[in-house]
Amino acid sequence: MSKHFPTPTAVAAALLLASLGAQAQEQAASETDKSLERVVVTGSNIKRTQAETSQPLLVISRSEIKAMGAMTVTDILGNLTDNDHSALSDLGGANSWASGASGVSLRNLGLGGTLTLLNGRRLTSYGFADGLQMNFSNIDAIPSELIERIEVLKDGASAIYGSDAIGGVINIITKQDYTGVGLAVSAQQSLRQSFLSRDKTGSVTLGKGSLEADGYNVYGHLEMYQRGAYKNSDIRPLLPTWYTDLNPSRLQKSSGSFPGNYTGSVPTTAAPGCAKENLVNGICMYDYWKDSDARPGTDRITGMAGARFKLNNDLTAFTELQFADIRATYHTAVTRSQAAGLTSTWYDSLKGELQSWSWPALPVGHPNNPYNFPVTLAYRYVDNPDMFKNVGSSFDHRLIFGVQGTLAGWDIDAAIGDMGSRASQRQQGLPDRFGYTDAVVSGEYKFGQANPQSVLDKMFPVFGSDGHYKEQFADFKGSRQIGTLPGGPLMVAVGAELRHQDFSHRSMDDVLQARIVGFSGVAIDGRRDLGAVFTELSAPITKTLEATLALRGDQVFNGFGAITPKLQLAWRPTQSLLLRGTLTQGFRAPSLPETGNGGASWFNNGIRDPKRCDTATALRDALRTGNTADQSDAEVAYASGCSVSFPSAVTPNPSLQPERSNNASLGLVVQVTDNVSATVDYYAIQRRNEIGVLDIDQVLANEGASSPLVPRDPVSVQDQLWSQRAKQLTGQDIAFATGPIRTMKLQYRNLYKTRVAGFDVDVQSKWGLGNWGKLNVGLEANIQTKLQYWDIYANAYGQNRVDYSGVPRTNAILKTNWSRGDWSVGGRVNYTASTKLAGSEWDDPNYQESGCVTRGVSVDQCRVASWTSTDLWLQYTGLKNWTLSGNLFNAFNEQPAIYHRPGSGVPYLDGRILKVSAEVKF
Question: At what angle do helices 613-623 and 628-642 cross, to 10 degrees?
């Protein structure tokens, strides 16, 4: 198909000419058309009948949400075949700068390519930015039990909504009028082990008044959700053999223990007082997996309240309040001491200087040092294990006052609002560079004993950060018929928005003062004022051909701007066939963290260092032949080259330009029979000017060309000790040729491009079975054909990522539902296609097919097998006012596919999951 797109000027001219020509026909508007019931559908500002919808729009009804058994909005959106599941999840919040929140990504375009709306208007952005860069809406903050339906526009819509609507728009629509009292509760757990997937939720909804009969309606809704937590040690017996073979550390204990082991310059020897059951070959061991969460717990209270009042027969005033109070807790492993002299480096965020600190030895004369020289005590601080955790908390709100209805012949919708999010992150576990050293060296901390909390807090103080996002806005849009064309009424919409945004993210003082070892800080703030104007024209050129044109201009006052057009055509040659297509441009405005003031630094974790990984692998293999302590060191040695951590710093860039995209789609809707309809839509998106920093893996792979970006430390003493021990065990000389990475210092730039393409398929059928009830069968599928990222070193797009790990070619859901009388039953078959084991074309050669052969991995295990699971659903409504339902997820106990890579995430362990729900309304 053509890759030429209309220019903003051309679209603006078309809109203007069409509007001028139509104004002469305004008095001839059809009264019949005026009487049609029209609604606003996601992706347009013009009211229209549902039959006129000619965009790729997926509607998820309340009944389907019940059938899928989703407890949260994250669960609901997780069932979208276009959701690539790459976005931030609160399940991984322990290692996130935006802990306690979740986002959504459509079409592999990330958080910044997907716009989420609530009742047609934007949600507040979260108080923290994902990756210290991307402002996003926390979908966990939306109550799920009040949702009436969700509309998913699988098309770009920046010409309608502005920034972020590149890959699609998700509009979550809640119940607007509610009368009576409603209660709902649900709970679920795994049938394999009761602690797995143990979640529960409950809600209460109150409402009074009928807008039509009484002229008003008020309602309130409160919802509570709790996710059950469990530890890494709890799941250890459930881990499959293939996983523990690849990740032997999951079965191992640590020599960093209580009361510890003397090590370093002496043979590893247990300190006095080690419990007999923890002694292994004379070394005291500790099970550190029992302290950290495999699944973190969370507690959420979400709610909405609203009111609608008729001002007269034509206008209705409304108000809406949405809020959420969320607390997510991530327990981490109890902190242990490290080898004396081992150095940590990080940034002093205030001075902009690199800091370093070395773990202290127990000095001569220390009560716990039996030697006449300084010694390392490998020790685990088990005095209060519960203190070592990361807690992410937030409070979000959105308050709107507005008016809707008809005024002077226009359908209007206007509102003012205030919204915001306050977020905090608190944790303990890293040492204070001064307090820790003083407590250890002076003997204030009593090894082998339970110490006062005041001493522990001195050594491991609470640290973290606070953030907020605030926005005030005013918007207006109006639509009306301005004439008549051969195909029907010519409709126009116009509107404008004003917004003020304010963002701040600041670490606590002890972090900014570089007191917390290895933890760099963030101090970012930014604010701006934005304005936008937009127009849209719906032109039924003939009875079978309709064109829709839209144009929007966004402007940051004293800053960047964007003009985005959209052209949409729909042709219905017969009653049973509709052909549709769109050409549009989209944009994402640079976020406040990307363009504001200050800067941020963080640790990169799990990075493969090409200059050290081969040696680290050889050291691991050699040390595995030794004693228990050597085997424990083997994994640490491996990580020092193949899963490394180091700090990076990044600064905002006020000269950034918006990210841009060209979007095209072409589709058809076919009414195959009276009972069966099908849609097929092809999409292609090219995004450019993407904002980011240089990719860490690519910088390291091209270190010769990027050496100023990769300063390194000398080969460490620990590196040399591993080499000496490997020589003793195997006789081989295995030594690092280069030291570890010290840091990287970067700035946001417009660097990258992405292009994606694929097909969306949706088949729906409804069958009346007479006395046997009704049967609905549907199929949804996303078939990806292209995902390519720009390689700035090669100055070209990289290899197509589709079919590589994490990017399956096909995601599909087959849905069935049969209802008769008070009973409904249904099922969902979920399918994800197989992928290669490698993550990309430049991934570690060990995971390419040739590398798998070398490692002795079979050809079938050099791919990640496809995944198919079946969910079943049952509902009964035969009790007055009550609805009872149950869901059985993974009904046939589908086992997880083998992911033959060390360090991979824990496989699916839950087996079958049973959920039961009850609702009552009075």
Answer: 170
